[in-house]
Amino acid sequence: MVTAVTFVWLGMVLAISFLEAPLKFRAPGITLPLGLGIGRLVFRALNAAEAVWAVIVVVAVIVGSWAGPAVPVAAGIAVGALLVQLVAVRPALTRRSDAVLAGHEGPRSSAHLVYVAIEVVKVAALIWLGVAVLISAT
């Protein structure tokens, strides 16, 4: 079960964060405000799904028995990365998109780059977790 949840979570992050998000702004007729509005909805849904996957992974890691620390450490990094994104970075992104949607461009924020960097860490942790669970199951 942990393997399936991990790779579904990984697939969702890769598809949305690294495929949908950058491509939406290249679509004909998509303005910055429209793209931001779509992005907010999509990432709110993604983060809600990620929270569910994270809870399932945490419960499975707690009740499971794993050979070595790889599974709990990888799970901790993935869940920790998600928590940092939700608690520390998303509020800054929301404030920035609120300002842009209200017509106040202002200085660009580095929060988006921080979110992407954490997303890369989360992807690496999810790959590590999925592989570690597969190895531990054999």
Tell me what you see in this structure:
This protein has one domain. It is built from four helices and no strands. The protein has helices at 2-24, 32-63, 70-101, 111-137. The longest helix is centred in the middle third of the chain and has 32 residues, at 32-63. The mean pLDDT is 93. It is 83% helix and 0% strand. It has 138 residues and is mainly alpha-helical. The chain crosses the membrane at residues 50-67, 73-93, 113-135. Keywords: Membrane, Transmembrane, Transmembrane helix. This is DUF4149 domain-containing protein. It comes from Gordonia paraffinivorans NBRC 108238.
Notable traits:
mainly alpha; 4 helices
Summarize it.
By secondary structure, the chain is an all-alpha fold. Helices cover 83% and strands 0% of the residues.
Secondary-structure blueprint of this entry?
Elements: H1 2-24, H2 32-63, H3 70-101, H4 111-137
- Quick one: how many beta strands? 0
Average pLDDT across residues? 93
Number of domains: 1
Which range does the strand content fall in?
A: under 5%
Report the sheet with the most strands, covering strand number, pairing sense and barrel closure.
none
Uncertain segments are none
Helix content: over 70%
Q: What is the distance, rounded to the nearest whole angstrom, between the alpha carbons of the first and last residues?
A: 14 Å
What would the principal axes of the Cα set say about the shape? elongated
Structural class: mainly alpha
What's the SSE pattern? HHHH
Q: What is the quaternary state of this protein?
A: single chain
Organism: Gordonia paraffinivorans NBRC 108238
Keywords: Membrane, Transmembrane, Transmembrane helix
Protein name: DUF4149 domain-containing protein
